[in-house]
Amino acid sequence: MGSLSHYVISGGADGIHRMRLIAPLIAADTAALLDRVGLHNGLECLDIGCGGGDVSLEIARRVGPEGHVTGADIDESKLTMARTDAHLQGLDNITFTTMDIRTMREASCYDVVYARFLLTHLENPSKAIANLYQSLRPGGSIILEDIDFKGNITYPDCPAFERYQTLYCDCVKHRGGDPFIGPKLPSLLRKNRFSNIRMTAVQALGMDGDIKLISAITMKNIADTLLHDGLASAREINEIITELYAFADNPDTIAGMPRVIQAWGYRPINE
């Protein structure tokens, strides 16, 4: 299994709770992206960095019984949850396995590869995309979703949120990642020989409900990283979390997730 040391957000039960909160809030945007690319019955697909498998399950429903999905991650606790969900939903065209995008050696195995919120945590995302290129069959498609943390919105301005945003970006960069990778996805695809590249941007915001809790919960989930890396004190972290929950509880505020860039392209059929 690959190391989780580069990943700034808690894994295990805390990470699963956060993922379960986020998944339904962005499901419609991801579904629209899959519609644009045009998944159909019979495709062999890879969801790399699948986490709890929410998108893996969606892809499995789209490719049907003649298709197959491999959901891959380096966090076994999340894979266990994903296997349980697949069983409960009666999906037997899906397999969950341990795989690290940084070291994978798949060769021309898939018609579609997909990754969401994964490249932002990697020190060398271009190399990871090169690995995905090699894993695709000629003519196959790559589908990416990742964040641009510059694209955060609150109303009204919230000092605790601004500090949270700074700390999140600092700890991602300190671990070698890129919190602003979203707009770079098209050029990274072009650099790695993909063709017919397209992109769009989406953002989940709200006036009430779970969407307003994402910042506070993410702050809780990066607390250990911030403390370990010496980027913030426990007192400051707790104060920010308290203020973010209070901001979310105010019916006159707006909050949500950072802007997400969706990009897709194709391995040329003649390669």
From TrEMBL:
Residues 40-174 form the Methyltransferase domain. PANTHER family: TRANS-ACONITATE 2-METHYLTRANSFERASE, TRANS-ACONITATE 2-METHYLTRANSFERASE-RELATED. It comes from Elysia marginata. This is Methyltransferase. Transmembrane segments: none annotated. It holds the Pfam family Methyltransf_31. CDD domains: AdoMet_MTases. It comes from the Eukaryota. One of its GO terms (molecular function) is methyltransferase activity. GO terms for biological process: methylation.
